[in-house]
Amino acid sequence: MTALATLLFILGVFAIRMVGGFSLSGVLAGNERVTRLLLLMPLSIVSAVVAVQTFTKGTTVVLDARAVGIAVAAILSWRKVPLGVVVVIAALTTALVRQFGWG
């Protein structure tokens, strides 16, 4: 029963997305403001996921080594450091902060 419910859920979401895409594409295609807004949505969703994963543990809000790693990554990204370097340095920073006993 669970597999059937999951399959029906997947098909329902797909159908809703297809109907929305086909019915709204003609209405929103020429609107520059909506296009710019839709281009920013993936960034806002990823930012929200990063914030939730960084600052929560279960149902509590925490401030630990992950926050330091995110701060380092934000500064390096602002300075336009390549993404691979940002990831490695942020991970090393988080590991070092944990090694010194915080988080």
Write the layout of secondary structure elements.
Layout: H1 2-28, H2 32-55, E1 56-57, E2 60-61, H3 65-78, H4 83-99
Antiparallel strand pairs: 1-2
Helix pairs in contact: 3-4
Describe the structure.
There is one protein chain. It is built from four helices and two strands; from the N terminus they run ααββαα. It has helices at residues 2-28, 32-55, 65-78, 83-99; strands at residues 56-57, 60-61. It has a two-stranded antiparallel ribbon. Helices cover 80% and strands 4% of the residues. The chain has 103 residues and is mainly alpha-helical.
| Topology as a string of helices (H) and strands (E) | HHEEHH
Residue-averaged pLDDT:
87
Based on CA atoms alone, the radius of gyration comes out at 20 Å
Count the strands? 2
| pLDDT < 50 runs, ≥5 residues | none
- Spatial shape: flat
Keywords for this structure?
2 strands, 4% strand, two-stranded antiparallel ribbon, mainly alpha, 103 residues
In short:
This protein is 80% helix and 4% strand. It has 103 residues and is mainly alpha-helical. The mean pLDDT is 87.
